Amino acid sequence: xxxxxxxxxxxxxxxxxxxxxxxxxxxxxxxxxxxxxxxxxxxxxxxxxxxxxxxxxxxxxxxxxxxxxxxxxxxxxxxxxxxxxxxxxxxxxxxxxxxxxxxxxxxxxxxxxxxxx
Length: 117
Known about the structure:
Shape: flat
Largest sheet: 3 strands, mixed
Strand order of the largest sheet: 2-1-3
Strand content: 5-15%
Order of helices and strands: HEEEH
Structural class: little secondary structure
Helix content: 10-25%
Distance between the termini: 44 Å
Oligomer: single chain
């Protein structure tokens, strides 16, 4: 007589918070690169940075300085932008408001959400 066993395996997605945290870590550790002459190599602009792997986050152009007026946009005011007044990180009011000060306003709203995952 023989026996039969069945094993089923699957991978579980991490929580959105964990995914966001991992992306933020990669964002903070990202390196600016230029393309190599062979069309497939990425070369770090900073010679002290190791060449990126396929899993590293890289960028090729600097982000615009949103604190400086841009003649291509209609206005450069950052009014109505949500920020975290206690954070000293990228979402903090001091950074988002370019050190020009900000007014704190508490807004409470209710949203019906029928999210499914």
